[in-house]
Amino acid sequence: MRGIAASPGIAIGTAVKKKDQALQADQREISSEEVEDELQRLQEGLEKAVEELKKLQEETKEKLGPKEAEIFEAHQMLVQDPEMVKTVEEGIKNQQKNAEKALEEAIEQYASLMAGLEDEYMQAREADIRDVGARVLRILKGESDEEADLSPDSIIIARDLTPSDTARLDKDKVVAFVTADGSRTSHSAIMARSLGIPAVVGLGRDFLEEVEDGMQVIVDGNQGEIFFNPEEKKLDEYREKLAEYQKEKERLARFKDVKAVTKDGEEIEVVGNIGNTEDVKPLLEQGGEGIGLFRTEFLYMDRDELPGEEEQFKAYREVVQAMGDYPVIIRTLDIGGDKDLPYLEQPEELNPFLGYRAIRLCLDQPEIFKPQLRAILRASHYGNVKIMYPMIATLEEVLAANRLLKESQGELKAEGVPFDPNMEKGIMIEVPGAVMIADALARELDFFSIGTNDLIQYTMAVDRGNEKIAYLHSPYHPGVLRLIKETIAAGQRNNIWVGMCGEAAGDELLMPFLLGAGLDEFSMSAGSILRIKELLGFWTREEAREIAEKALELKTEAEVKKLLQDNKRTAL
Ligand code: PEP
Ligand code: MG
Q1: Catalytic sites, residue numbers
Q2: Cα 553 from Cα 555, distance rounded (Å)
Q3: What is the pLDDT of residue 162?
Q4: From the CB of 183, is ligand 1 less than 6 Å away?
Q5: CA dist 2 to 223, 232, 465, Å?
Q6: How do residues 2-17 score in pLDDT, each as one tens digit?
Q7: Of the residues 271, 360, 454, which should be mutated to test ligand 1's pocket, given the most ligand atoms within 8 Å of the CB?
């Protein structure tokens, strides 16, 4: 089966289907003699659930930090909630239902109650109640906790994985993952690349029917191919590919500690994209010489309230200090679109990607934006920090954001809090309209960073997450190439540097075009860095310029792809 190649690499392993945690129990009428036994069973189930949650809390604390672990403490309290336990017990005693059914009904009752409340925070608890209910139910049914039970060659098969699911994947046991939903730029795919786990996504939901736990699976994250129960011949072919892949890894290792240079010795900045403090280590291990995009929205996700200035400051400072002298570009909150904050009241929208999001929301709600600006400024004192605004469409937005930044600087100065007064300011180029006024924007800024994930989405009018039309979300379309070229040219005319932090920056085929078009900085998922560093060494800027000029003359995506393919240079 073919899906979207979301994270490179090859894996051969065993399918583990991630179950959608359905709350469903069989009903069994029990006799009055059995009541005591059922009550006892319930009690044991609840205790076991608390034990599991404690363990999960500890593990999460170690892997991701105390804040992320808090949710499991709340879950422990839910399991032990006296009202809820009483309701289940009454179902067993008074209606002579088995523990599973009594639990299911109690959970349903409480979950619907929560869902019906006015308070958004309480509404959000519905999911937690269902989650906890599913855990206890699984224990009562005698099924094990799948996370704990993974074999060391597990290939996770799921409808989709949330960012927190992906972050929790045990890298020692999970060798790949495959999802029905998602795209190359969905956040689970981006996380997979950060973690260095091969992934294929967007296979469509039907494929889930065909997979069974325990099947042997080959995942080709380079080509986006999956083979279930492969024949011996296929297995041999892939064992060989896997060995080659490992050899390549060894070859690339020598680029870890050296700067990226072109064939004629020009140094090029090759940096990485991160989503949280956890990503810094793999980035440095993969030879990243800085951070070209810190997606701060992950700090705001999977929680119940906005992170305060102090908490943000600490997270940013941790990253900045870990990076030493390397640059760290912190992008301000880019929420909306496919990234939702349940605790923020946001209007229902027909087109969330075109809606109230990112800089639009931040400028409209300075009480959310200002603490972040202050936190970034404070972190700038500890290293080489630059700030970047997402989704800029107008000059007014840049002026307004800069005004709030200046206001924050004034406040900090008055409070005697140190910050870097020369911190560079930049914007993401993601909206075609912004490209058309890039000269005016450049005069207010120190850099541009091209966000191709969204730039392509808005240029081609193609939803970046819709697999049915994913073929249109291509960086090789001549319209996209011209927008990239124009952005870089505007940067050069106005003496500001231009980088790229969309996924196209790590695209091996496109690399000569980007170099030739004059890109100054390439920022990508950690997993692509070494290969791009190696590739840059095969080209001079001048040679690449010839290719770029030719590409800009072409009329179709296919022609561009062919040109790049024909001029590909490799190590072998
Ligand atoms: C982009 O749009 O290219 C980008 C890098 O931002 P994100 O993927 O976070 O929207
Ligand atoms: Mg974007």
Answers
A1: 187, 501
A2: 7
A3: 63
A4: no
A5: 8, 20, 17
A6: 999 888 899 999 999 8
A7: 454
